[in-house]
Structures are given as structure tokens and as C-alpha cells.
């Protein structure tokens, strides 16, 4: 396989096999439709011939996947060119004897969902960390949509794909459903995931009608993540309230309408949060979750709202109804900027 400009390090399969203890089950971090992710340790020598150890995460693609090589090459094409402090860094790659592997920085604090749902109340993410995480993800999203030389739609924004370094800085990972945007298409009908990639609760309503990903549908996914992190509840799990079941966004919208949106806050925070910041983030989460794509805020405004330099968005008391516009205006202004670079699907959750 020819080297691409600026290509990260090429590893020998033997190196990665040794680093992961022969891909031992105890080293497994996560699994998805296209393979498994393992934790590993690289043993190298620096320029002074001193032994060094580096923790890594290794994504090993399934060998029996016919499309494996195409998925691998497509992912590599995009990922190796992305450079941002809030994206998981691609360290290197391996393609040897039909085996396809990608090597990433290891994130010692795992994924956000583990901190929200698999820790005790005493060890839950504090308010400062939650705000820091959301600011980081918003920054990464803005980069992908506006600062990279191509637009990139992630298409699978969710808590399990947000990884945390040793200082709880967020790193957006798992570009397994990502797509680089150029001048042609943004259909993702090729993916065999019940027609629509992503996870229920994070997928924008228009995606079920068009099967197309846009920057606006990523903003919708970000809105779900905002509500999840602030409320400590999964967007995919119904909330029982007065004998009725609500989705997370519908429940928060009801609280907003009734003037008690602060009651949606994660109770494990024990009121240890800044009320104005919380109110601003909850309203931002609702604004990003607007059923009509064109009404969602742009990533620049999202970053400014989180930073507190722009007021909270205006959110109507009742959630608007999703309405399909006329064919002439059915597609977003960004739709003309989409391509068909397809990548693999795997959840890298630690």
C-alpha cells in the first residue's frame, strides 16, 4: 500500500501483536461491527537509546469482512489528515497479510458514558469536568465542519465516542461512520445498519427520511450529548413522568415549558453547579435538538454560547413539529458539499 503524504507510522503486525499480548481478551476495550479495539503498550527506544513505553489503543478490523480493506483505506484517508487537540490522534497503521489495524493514542480516563453510568455517585463527573468536555467536543465539531480543508461529518456523536485524557480533556473518537464532504453526495445508504447509522436518541429526524448525513445532523447529535451530560440520562432511554414516557429531549422541553428546567439537572451533582451555566447548556441542548435542521445553531455560535460570550439561544416553549419542507428546499445549504467516502463502524468505548 502506497504511503499517503504525512502518513503516520507504519507498524509491523508482530509489533502490535506483542503490544496487545497477542490480542488477549483482557486487553479488549470495545467492539463494533467491523472489529475490536485493544489496549496495548509499545516498547521502543528513543534517540538516546533509552527504553520507553507508550500506551496505545489498537483497532483490529475483522478479517472476514469483505469490505474491510476499503473501509480501512477510507478511514485512513480522512483520519491521518485531521489535527486537533480534541480529536483522538491517529498514531499509526498496519496492513499485513490481509490484517488491517489502526493505532490511536490511549485515553486513560476512558469514555464519557462510563463516567456517567458505571461509577458511583461520589465519583461522577463534576460540573467543571462536564463543561470542559462539552467545550472540547464543540471545538472539535467546529474544526471538522469549518476549519479542516474538507468538511467532515462524524455521524455518530454520542457519549461512548467521547474519550477523556488524563486531565479530562475530551477527545472525539471513532470516525467509523465519518464521511468527508466534497462536491457530490452525502448518502450513507451503503451502510447496513438498519438504514441509518448512529444510535437511537442521537440521530436527527430528517436522517430517517433522507438517509443523508449533514453538518446539521451532527449538531443534532451534539445536542443529545449536551442534554445527556448535563442531565446524566441516556437519550435512548425513556423517562417515566406522571404515567407518561418521554424521550430525554421531550422531557427537558416539558421542564423548560413549565419554567422548571433546572429540575432536569443530574441529581448526582447535588446542586454543586453554576445555575446560569446549566440553564444556558440545557437551552443550547434543546436548540441543537430542533426538529428542523435549518433552525439549529451553527458550530461557531455553539462554541460562543458554551464560552459564555453569547447569550443562551431562544427556545420556544413547545417543541416544534418535524415538517418535511418542499423538495426545492428539502436539503440543507451544506448538502451540495458532500461526498461518498465511507468508513467503518466501531464503537471505541473504554
UniProtKB/TrEMBL annotation:
GO terms for biological process: response to other organism. It holds the Pfam family PK_Tyr_Ser-Thr. Keywords: ATP-binding, Kinase, Lectin, Nucleotide-binding, Serine/threonine-protein kinase, Transferase. Residues 23-293 form the Protein kinase domain. ATP binds at residue 60. One of its GO terms (molecular function) is carbohydrate binding. It comes from the Eukaryota. Coiled coil: none annotated. Belongs to the protein kinase superfamily. This is Concanavalin A-like lectin protein kinase family protein.
Amino acid at each position: 500500500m502506497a504511503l499517503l503524504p504525512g502518513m503516520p507510522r507504519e507498524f509491523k503486525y508482530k509489533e502490535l501483536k506483542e503490544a496487545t499480548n497477542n490480542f488477549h481478551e483482557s486487553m479488549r476495550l470495545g467492539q463494533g461491527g467491523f472489529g475490536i479495539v485493544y489496549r496495548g503498550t509499545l516498547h521502543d527506544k528513543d534517540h538516546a537509546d533509552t527504553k520507553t513505553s507508550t500506551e496505545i489503543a489498537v483497532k483490529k478490523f475483522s478479517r472476514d469482512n469483505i469490505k474491510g480493506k476499503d473501509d480501512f483505506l477510507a478511514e485512513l484517508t480522512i483520519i491521518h489528515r485531521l489535527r486537533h487537540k480534541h480529536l483522538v490522534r491517529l498514531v499509526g497503521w498496519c496492513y499485513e497479510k490481509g490484517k488491517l489495524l489502526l493505532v490511536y493514542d490511549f485515553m486513560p480516563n476512558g469514555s464519557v458514558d462510563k463516567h456517567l453510568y458505571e461509577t458511583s455517585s461520589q465519583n461522577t463527573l463534576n460540573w467543571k469536568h462536564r463543561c470542559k468536555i462539552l467545550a472540547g467536543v464543540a471545538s472539535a465539531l467546529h474544526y471538522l465542519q469549518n476549519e479542516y480543508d474538507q468538511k467532515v461529518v462524524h455521524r455518530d456523536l454520542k457519549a461512548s465516542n467521547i474519550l477523556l485524557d488524563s486531565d479530562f480533556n475530551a477527545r472525539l473518537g471513532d470516525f467509523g461512520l465519518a464521511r468527508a464532504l466534497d462536491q457530490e453526495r452525502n448518502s450513507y445508504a451503503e451502510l447496513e445498519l438498519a438504514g441509518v447509522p448512529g444510535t437511537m436518541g442521537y440521530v436527527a429526524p430528517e436522517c430517517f427520511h433522507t438517509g443523508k448525513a449533514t453538518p446539521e445532523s451532527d449538531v443534532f447529535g451534539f445536542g443529545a450529548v449536551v442534554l445527556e451530560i448535563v442531565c446524566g440520562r441516556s437519550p435512548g432511554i425513556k423517562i417515566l413522568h406522571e404515567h407518561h414516557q418521554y424521550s430525554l429531549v421531550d422531557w427537558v422541553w416539558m421542564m423548560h415549558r413549565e419554567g422548571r428546567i433546572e429540575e432536569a439537572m443530574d441529581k448526582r451533582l447535588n446542586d454543586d453547579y453554576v445555575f446560569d451555566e446549566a440553564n444556558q447548556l440545557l437551552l443550547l441542548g434543546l436548540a441543537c435538538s430542533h426538529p428542523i435542521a435549518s433552525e439549529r445553531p451553527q458550530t461557531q455560535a455553539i462554541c460562543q454560547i458554551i464560552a459564555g460570550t453569547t447569550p443562551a439561544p431562544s427556545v420556544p416553549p413547545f417543541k416544534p413539529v418535524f415538517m418535511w419542507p418542499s423538495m426545492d428546499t428539502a436539503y440543507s445549504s451544506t448538502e451540495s458539499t458532500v461526498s461518498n467516502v465511507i468508513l467503518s463502524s466501531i464503537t471505541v468505548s473504554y
